Amino acid sequence: MHLQSFIAGRWLGAEPAAALRSAVDGRVVAHTHAEAIDFAEAVDFARVAGLRGLLALDFQQRAQRLKALAKYLLEHKETLYAASAPTGATRQDAWIDIEGGIGTLFAYASLGSGELPSGNVLHEGPAMPLGKGGGFAGTHILVPRRGLAVHINAFNFPVWGLLEKFAPSFLAGMPCIGKPATATSFLTEALVRLIDASGLLPAGSLQLVIGGTGDLLDRLDGCDVVTFTGSADTAAKLRVHPNLIRQSVPFNAEADSLNCAVLADDVTPDDEEFELFVREVAREMTVKAGQKCTAIRRALVPRRHLDAVAERLRARLARVVVGDPAQEGVKMGPLASHAQQADVAERVARLREHAELVCGGGTDVIPLGAGTDHGAFFAPTLLLSRDPWRDAAVHDVEAFGPVSTLMPFDSMDEAVELAARGRGSLVASLVTHSPRVAAQVVPAMAALHGRVHVLDRVSAKESTGHGSPLPALKHGGPGRAGGGEELGGIRAVKHLLQRTAVQGSPTMLAAITGEHVRGAEVIETEVHPFRRHFEDLQVGESLLTHRRTVTEADIVAFGGISGDFFYMHFDEVAARQTQFGQRIAHGYFVLSAAAGLFVSPAPGPVLANYGLDTLRFVKPVGIGDTIRARLTCKRKIDRNRVDPSGVGQGVVAWDVEVSNQHGELVASYDILTLVAKRG
């Protein structure tokens, strides 16, 4: 198989170059291509065709494309599983990579449709008054950068690695050039061929580089971004690329790190958490043959339990069947390449200069399956450093394979300090049954770890584990881990947008953001806004209601219905002694009364109210006060959905201001409704 790059909308490469071998049996499975890539053409295609196609869609439409792509890839996932076989991944390993990547597309499609607006301007409000008269205000907007994203990935996750970067980039309107690690690029190429065949993406949304990046980084400018996943050494070199520095190109690194797991000193060998710790360390050593940037490299245990942990880990690792993942019963496959096998062997040798060997140790494992004697296998290897205070290598040398080192501590303060000697990592696990220990240790560890996974018998029933980054949570870490951030829900999209402060009159800000800003001109008509279908409703359309005077009977009736007999509403003597000096109405009565003022009760386009945002009770409402409400269409989001009857619908957020007889604001909130379309 001759691999090809996907550049400027066409597949490039016919002449074979470097041979890529199966990690399982050493046979040649593919060749890279010898043809040089014209990176000027690739960059130009992304900036012209790619941006044009992506920005012709809005946030919501791009989210819908992501969802459709995820469904398409899920339907064709067996193609990717077949292509994954030469990487040495077991079915479970490949599931993490393939279906984990597809799941990330689904997650970002959902986040996009739920949290991003129609259009390509994301208002990061609220707007702030900047003058006393109300005519000058400021806010922030997030807009597409109008540049491209270069994503350079490691060999261990050929599918997930590309998709977890592509999904937020696509939502942010950034065309991508993906550069997978060469060793497993045949799987990434299979993925991009499926994406191309789907026809779901605008031209130029995604390009693929097989082989080196040539002068690609020299062609970027300040509108572009570069993300990198891989070794800390390579990240350090890329970070100081002259053009990236000169052009102030944002650079995000997620680097391999010496992640740790800590068994807290409240846990004994008889506790469930003890076995959970052993199981977690063993799993992280053997899943993907330990080739995960989040794998546990250092296992920290109380000194009194050191031998017990070592024995249980040795027994568990001895049951791991190593070999060709196609063979029944195999639990761990080979490393991704023979070069990786040699690298791990060299690093284990360095670690063994100061550490004892508990089990494993090298390439002398006898794997199951025909031809595996030519594979890149490495035995699950557990080391023991009895004096980690003097053993610098254990905190500095990472063997990127099925390798972990045990080390003892004498107090939880020592455990925190030992964890910190890794100089920053992506994730640390704390296994404890004590909330007190968790409250003490986690804030201290958080300073040098991008994620802290607290494991106990309760969370274990649902935990996704130490080594599993999740789309909704930040992935990245300080120091050695690269200092970057990926994922984290909608944060990942915002990282790829340009944040800009905007100043002007409220009316101008409303026009720019596509959202009503208080103080802006409103649109008042004889038609109640609740009587308009989604397409007909204008942002800024507003209703000022009639008035209602609050009586003692209102408070008594609301208390009887709600069961809320709080003294501020019913005890005249106690209420007089407070800062309010009188009985006041329930806040939720004010909310309900306001709804009674602005709701149009007859059947109409407004289908349902499904929530309130930013609710604040600003001033008390007393007996005899008169309130009224202003209801204004704040923003519209067309999610391209239909209800079970086939009627289209969108989401409308309404700004509600409730004021008293003096014109003072007493309550403020956004109400969210589903509104039917005409069709």
What descriptive keywords fit this protein?
alpha/beta, Aldehyde Dehydrogenase, Chain A, domain 1, Aldehyde Dehydrogenase, Chain A, domain 2, 19 helices, 32% helix, oxidoreductase activity, acting on the aldehyde or oxo group of donors, NAD or NADP as acceptor, Ald_DH/histidinol_DH, MaoC-like_dom, Aldehyde dehydrogenase/enoyl-CoA hydratase
Task: Kindly summarize this structure in a few lines.
This protein is an alpha/beta fold and 679 residues long.
General description of the model:
With 679 residues, this protein is of the alpha/beta class. It has three domains: 40-255 and 492-497, Aldehyde Dehydrogenase, Chain A, domain 1 (3-Layer(aba) Sandwich), CATH 3.40.605; 260-474, Aldehyde Dehydrogenase, Chain A, domain 2, CATH 3.40.309.10; 522-676, Hotdog Thioesterase (Thiol Ester Dehydrase, Chain A, Roll), CATH 3.10.129.10. 32% of the residues lie in helices and 24% in strands. Strands 14-15-16-13-12-17-18 form a seven-stranded mixed β-sheet, with helices on both faces. The mean pLDDT is 92.
Catalogue the unreliable spans.
none
Shape: globular
| CATH homologous superfamily heading of the largest domain | Aldehyde Dehydrogenase, Chain A, domain 1
Main sheet specs: 7 strands, mixed
Total strands: the figure is: 27
Task: Describe how the helices and strands are arranged.
Elements: E1 5-7, E2 10-12, E3 16-21, E4 28-33, H1 39-55, H2 59-75, H3 77-84, H4 91-115, E5 122-129, E6 137-144, E7 149-152, H5 160-171, E8 176-179, H6 185-198, E9 206-208, E10 225-230, H7 232-239, H8 242-246, E11 251-255, E12 260-263, H9 272-286, E13 298-302, H10 306-318, H11 338-351, E14 356-359, E15 381-384, E16 403-409, H12 412-420, E17 425-431, H13 435-446, E18 449-455, E19 474-475, E20 486-487, H14 491-495, E21 497-504, H15 506-513, E22 542-544, E23 548-549, H16 552-562, H17 567-570, H18 572-576, H19 587-598, E24 606-617, E25 626-642, E26 648-659, E27 665-676
Parallel strand pairs: 7-8, 7-10, 8-9, 10-11, 12-13, 12-17, 13-16, 15-16, 17-18
Antiparallel strand pairs: 1-2, 3-4, 5-6, 6-21, 14-15, 19-20, 22-25, 23-25, 24-27, 25-26, 26-27
Helix pairs in contact: 2-4, 3-4, 3-6, 4-5, 9-10, 12-13
